Amino acid sequence: MRKTLWRVSFYSLGIFLLCLGVTLNTKTGLGVSPVAAVPIAISNGTSWGYSAVLFWYYTACVGIQFLLKGRDREWKDLLQVPLSGVFSVIQGWMVDTIHLQPQSLWQSLAVLPFAVCFTGFGIAFIVHMDLVPNPADGVPFVISRVTKKEMGLVKNLVDAACVAISLAADLLLSGRITSLGLGTIVAMIFNGRAIAVFDRFFKEKVKNLAGLAPEAAAPQNACPGVEESLLETSEQSH
């Protein structure tokens, strides 16, 4: 029960930090996060509404995870799409509540590191609790598991791919860049690095508290040879 409470608490903290980071990134006026740039670019260049594009974008992210997981896929992964609505509600509340309006470039740049750290740490808290991640962030997590590569590195590569897709969509559909900004590029580079820092210093401690790390599992006879020798000695003494 205690470990479950830790797990839910860390997961909730992750949702809060992720929404806060994305909100601050938007408030800087320097562009949105890389994963958000893709549906914005498509929506800006077509007659489709942003909400409709976002729904199909998240559905595609879940589909990619299903393909990558193969037989390890879980039906709870489908909960990512409706859960994204919860993220949207919390983020909308933060946008209305946080009255932050940088008046100059240096003020926006001063806010950006906080946005990156909150976003990266939020993603790490969420995915490492192995419950239901945000669809766009579930993709790098699954790729990391399948390829056995560092989560932070995979996040960097996925964000770079999102920026490339957004740029292509902007140029093909709108004829100009509408979805990318300096903040998007900074987030592409440093969100993954923030996750890498989290994994190095906090991952194992957090997972242990939540009962998810290998160390927290019940011991499985770590020294079978010693145990067999003791049994043979016991039998000979009889």
How would you portray this structure in words?
The chain is an all-alpha fold and about 240 residues long. The chain has ten helices and no strands. The protein starts with a helix and ends with a helix.
Radius of gyration: 22 Å
Which word captures the global form? Answer: globular
Count helical runs. Answer: 10
Query: Which parts are unreliable, with pLDDT below 50 for 5 consecutive residues or more?
Result: 215-238
Terminal residue distance:
44 Å
Order of helices and strands: HHHHHHHHHH
Strand percentage lies at under 5%
How many β strands by DSSP? Answer: 0
**Major sheet, described briefly?**
none
* Helix-strand category: mainly alpha
Provide keyphrases for this structure.
238 residues, 10 helices
What's the structural blueprint in terms of helices and strands?
Layout: H1 2-27, H2 34-45, H3 50-69, H4 80-97, H5 105-128, H6 135-147, H7 151-174, H8 182-201, H9 203-209, H10 224-237
Helix pairs in contact: 1-4, 1-5, 2-3, 2-7, 3-6, 5-8, 6-7, 7-8
In brief:
By secondary structure, this protein is mostly helical.
